[in-house]
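#struct-pred

JT: dropping the chains for the assembly here, can someone run the whole complex?
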Amino acid sequence: MTGRRSVVVCAVAALLWSPAVAHAVCPGTGCFAMDPAADRIQLRSSCAGQSNCCETSEALTNWIGTCRVANPPRLLVDVGPGAFGQIKCGWAFLPFPPNAPPAFTDVTFRGSGTEQTFFKVPAGCTSCAPIEVGQGCDDLEFLNLTVDGADTKYGVLWRVDAGDSTWTNVHVLGNELGWYEFTFAPSSFCNPAVNFPVHVWFDSKIETRGVNVGQGVSAYQANCGESRLFNTELLAAVSSSGVNLTEGVNALSIGADPQLGDLTRKGRVLLAGSVIRMIAPAWTGGTYDQIIAGVRVYPNGELAMNDGVINVTVSAANPSTIYDLKVDAASGSLPAGRAHTAGAGFIVTRTGTPDVGAASWRVAGTNATAESPFLWSAGTDLPRPRAGSAQTVQTLTGADLFVETDCGTTTNCTGGSQPHLLISNASCLSGWFNSTTKACRAP
Amino acid sequence: MIERWLARVVAAAVWLAAGAATAQLDKVDIVKLRTNCGSEVDCTTLNPTTNTQTSCCLNSMTTVNTWLWGQRKPSAAKPVLLDIGPGEFGPFDCPAATGGNPANGYVTVRGSGRDTTTIRRASFAAGSGAVTLKSCQRMTFQDLNVSGNGVAVSWSGTGSTQWFNVGIEAQSVYGFFAYGWYDEQSTAPTPRPVHYWFSTKVRTTGAVFANNGFLARASEHWFYGGEVESVLTSVANGATVTNSAPVALDGLGEFRAFGSALRSRTDIFCGTVTAVGVQVAGSGHFHMHGGVINATATPDSGSCATNMSATGLLFTGNDHVHTPGTAFIVRKNLNGVAARLQNTGTGTVESPYHWPPSADPPTITSLTGADLFVETDCADAPANTASNCNGGGTETHLMVSSNSCASKWFDATQGTCRP
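RK: done, full complex below.
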């Protein structure tokens, strides 16, 4: 029961206090002149003079789930400018509570632009999400809109027994988790053999701002499913220094975190033309494991990213060890995480002072599980975190190459004019082996 | 005294009426722009005090510019979708707010496809483009083409935009300049304007003084999965071209590209030129990870007897460039110079690159240590003595670019300069 307790409280409260959803009446309050066989309807702030039009998200989803003809055609929902409520599909914390909203499939929600169409949560609901999708929901598509969870913890809650989705030109925003594959409910543990949803993203931005968070932070948490992200930005920018985190802090989290207890989790994420950014301020509170990562690949997680960049920027005063990429070892019956990042760029930055000396890693794991070769920019000094940190960047033996441009016949590469190729090597005190002189570089 | 009181009452009534009028027109959240509005309600006929319509139609961009900013006045709480049908329409303007009014913006300009809807400025106007945006907030453009004479998109002031599935074209004015994106200001306002681009193609053609897909001097751009191309099509052979680069940064301009292609091409042009992929001056800041920077100064067809040069990345600034993971193509013509990197600035160029293996070094110049390649025909030789890599050998040696070596390459396997 580690973590997400507030979700439990919220769900139990909903079970106890929510009135039965009146979605048996068609078209229901808030929808106007609806054709049950329509293949195109609208969600608008005002439906004056419009047919096949709903004015609230709740009315819309109730109508879609309960009022359409049998075997309906795929439905396009044209969403006008403005802010609308939650899109809830088959979501409930427990499997079949009486107040579960109706499920539906094969629906496209097309907004009026990421800066003009917003889905938001009701006032005061800090543990729900603008989009909540659960059992029985499949083949849902969202485009040209913003999922605005600025007032709550989450952007999208996608329960593990839901189906596939496609997202194009969408901005997702949450405070703890932008995208959350929800595996917590007792009967909805991840079971990849039965259901392993696929989520495809194009031209989108998924973001968590980490304001006043009390648990973990991830722009994207892939616990149960496969995600393919193209031309997409993942940004976790923790803006509060008062955090007391009980879970991981990562821009992208993949697989099963053994400390969260659910050992059925499995995640796979493929990125192309995309960016992963993690930004954190200084903090002194006890954090979960004192780790901040751009990408954390837990056991049973897989990452493939062959261009783009992983960029971690942390205050030098933050005591956490930072990683661009951390690939965890096997845990119990769970296999080790795996990553393949040939071609991707990496940036590690520690800003400001004081530098408390916590280590900065480009990649951690093993060469068998973290396939992550990287050629650093040439220079007269070893790779260090940006912004003036005195420490050197840690990495795996053999994974990193670097051309030091002021080498000569000595091994410490100072004052010469020869460019020598250095290879990362944990056996060397400096962490680098000079392949031209065939000796460890001096520290 | 009574007159003054009456004047106040009248003024208050006018103010309230104006507010009410705005509130009624706020009901319109979709404005259609069509070549022919047919039976659609004309936006200009809506009664500001009694309107109940949620959408209306206009048949010219001039009327859109007037009605949108003068009557409807979009806001964050009451944004607007400008839904443009197929066809070609005139320039779109988002003017700076005046008289202490809130900033303009909050509009999605959505076409019917980038080969179907075009916003065009046919004749050059100083300070304006086909799209002109002045301190505009949260603007979105998608599914359309923007075509400008001289300047396609003109930006000034603070604010933000997002572009998705858009084509941007700029043709030169009198052969002098063509900008896809042009920052009117040379210094960044506060807060700094930020622009996101997805799946967009920017193309400029035919200018000799400035042929730039982007000239960013004050704004920050995040460019995903697109193409920026500057081509010398229509420039008369024999001319001298001073600046042809798809991305040019100066002032505080910032450009970050991912999974994209930046191309400078001479096409059929034959004259004096250095085709440049990316040009960074002043405090410009450039990042690119994934994709390619291509500077090609060889004719696409026919022959050209003029030496033409090409530079992948030209840095004269004082800030920073970072491009790990980006490929380069640099092609000169005849005895022109092919430079992958040139740095005459005071800032930092971080641009490592690994060339394909070959029996000969790549015919480029670069910065010391920045370029690697494996030479495949080197002969065995004692350590720290020069190895013969001019054929006959079977050893593969790692070469590193070095301007201290006469050959410009250091044999890192042997520990000596390549002969």
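JT: nice. The helical segments of chain B are 2-25, 61-72. The mean pLDDT of chain B is 93.
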